[in-house]
């Protein structure tokens, strides 16, 4: 077995950093960006037969989620609602995003099918089969 090329790892890390910078720019500098929609962080893994996506969605109910696939694009949308107890409370700090969210994840040039999705411990776990 050959060792992974460190240049490939560094390139992938650079792409991740660029995506994070673009996400921050969209959220804070585009008109209405932060107030109208937030983007949950995701991890994406690829195996020989599947893509696995894990999205951090603490406090989001399954009924408030929607998944769609269009070719090589997975769209995760939904809403995180403020807990009932917090709606009548004086809020001192609110760091976890609330309201509508949307995350579009383009996967490398493949047609995909949704094989499985579930919410586990505040994470949405999605398995997409390659066609």
Radius of gyration: 17 Å
Q: Which series of helices and strands comes N to C?
A: HHEEEEHEEE
Assess the beta-strand content as a share of residues: 35-45%
Distance between the termini: 28 Å
Can you describe what's shown?
By secondary structure, the protein is of the alpha+beta class. The protein has two domains: 1-36; 37-84 and 98-131, Immunoglobulin-like. The chain has three helices and seven strands; from the N terminus they run ααββββαβββ. Strands 1-2-7-6 form a four-stranded antiparallel beta sheet, with no helix packed on it. A hairpin with a 3-residue loop joins strand 1 and strand 2. The radius of gyration is 17 Å and the shape is globular. The protein starts with 5 loop residues before the first helix and ends with a strand. The model has no long low-confidence stretch (mean pLDDT 86).
